[in-house]
Amino acid sequence: MAGDIRIRNLATYLEELRIIHQELGITEDCAFGRLGPIFVENAELVRAGSDLYDRDLYLARPAAEAWLNMQSAARHDGINLIVVSGFRNVRRQQEIIRRKLDAGQQLIEILKENAAPGHSQHHTGFALDLADESNCEPLSEAFEQHRAFEWLSRRAAGFGFSLQYPRGNSHGSFMNLGIGPWMAFKLSLSDISPKSHG
């Protein structure tokens, strides 16, 4: 994929992240947007359809297969799941934050909703932000009240996915710890071994 940072070695990748953070004004002592580990970009991706915005959707092969199976099962049950966001490289994460800064948003507020480049699970190709084809605004807390969310809560684990930030998680409420509300609905492939889809 054009524009990807190619990993020559971890030291080079970490230096690239340092430069990107510096350009965005993300300091070493800034905790917002930098929770958890650094994720290395996955270079082995496959196309898994399109996302909500009709962009090509790329995922790691096991995640793509699990996603397509889960989407088909949901459709069979009358739920039309759609991906809002799949794989994003660190440059795309940088662009998202830069666009918001240029629009006048404060960095601290942006980092409450967007992980700093290098800290997003989306870099792995195993993370999805999901919505459904209803009138629910994508990436909003309102999704929690929809049939699709209820379906995912019951069935996603059967496809190897898990809800990353449920209410009452060990990180506290996603609303008061700087975790954007849509991250409450992020699914990541947790186990690629075959599971019952029933």
Q: How is the topology of this model organized?
A:
Elements: H1 10-24, E1 45-50, E2 56-60, H2 61-76, E3 81-85, H3 90-102, H4 107-110, E4 127-132, H5 147-155, E5 161-163, E6 186-189
Antiparallel strand pairs: 1-2, 3-4, 4-6, 5-6
Helix pairs in contact: 1-3
Radius of gyration: 17 Å
C-alpha geometry? globular
Number of strands: 6
**What is the CATH domain class?**
Alpha Beta
- Beta-strand residue fraction: 5-15%
Mean pLDDT: 78
Q: Gap between N and C termini, in Å?
A: 36 Å
The main sheet orders its strands as 3-4-6-5
- Could you list the spans in which at least 5 consecutive residues all have pLDDT below 50? 1-6, 169-185, 191-198
Q: By helix and strand content, what is the structural category?
A: alpha+beta
Pattern of helices and strands = HEEHEHHEHEE
CATH topology: Muramoyl-pentapeptide Carboxypeptidase, domain 2
Largest sheet: 4 strands, antiparallel
Q: Judging by the overall fold, what is the CATH architecture?
A: 2-Layer Sandwich
Q: Give helix % range.
A: 25-40%
- Please indicate the count of domains: 1
Question: What's the total helix number?
Answer: 5
